[in-house]
Amino acid sequence: MQDPTNCPKCNSENIYADGNLWICPECGNEWSAHASADNAAEDVQDSLIRDANGNILNDGDSVTVIKELRIKGSSNVVKVGTKVKNIRLTDAGDGHDIACKIDGIGSINLKSEFVKKA
């Protein structure tokens, strides 16, 4: 078994071997010491914004909310199945990468992990 020095996900030095796997207790990442360089290349994050199913989102797409979302500072909620039309992709830095308007609520930012492409 190889002897890696850092977690490939969070770069932590606190890793340990468990059978054929290396485990990072800080982020919970598990990886095989025998993983090929091809698998490492697939894990590289691209700059594309994807929905919960892995579909690439573009400006102007329509999406459907897959989880009930409470709006911080308000008693309103965005219900499951709410269809949102004409989204705009942004890079807010806090994970809210979709800007949109929802009828009855107004302008809101959503995380792409809670929507699927309609």
Automatic annotation (TrEMBL):
Domain Protein YjdM N-terminal: from-to ranges: 6-32
A UniProt-annotated Pfam family: Zn_Ribbon_YjdM
InterPro entries: YjdM, YjdM_C, YjdM_N
SUPFAM superfamilies: Prokaryotic SH3-related domain (SSF82057), Zinc beta-ribbon (SSF57783)
Location of the Protein YjdM C-terminal domain: 49-118
Gene3D superfamilies named among the record's database cross-references: 2.20.25.10, SH3 Domains
NCBIfam families assigned: phnA
Family, as annotated: Belongs to the YjdM family.
This protein's name: Alkylphosphonate utilization protein
Organism: Bdellovibrio reynosensis
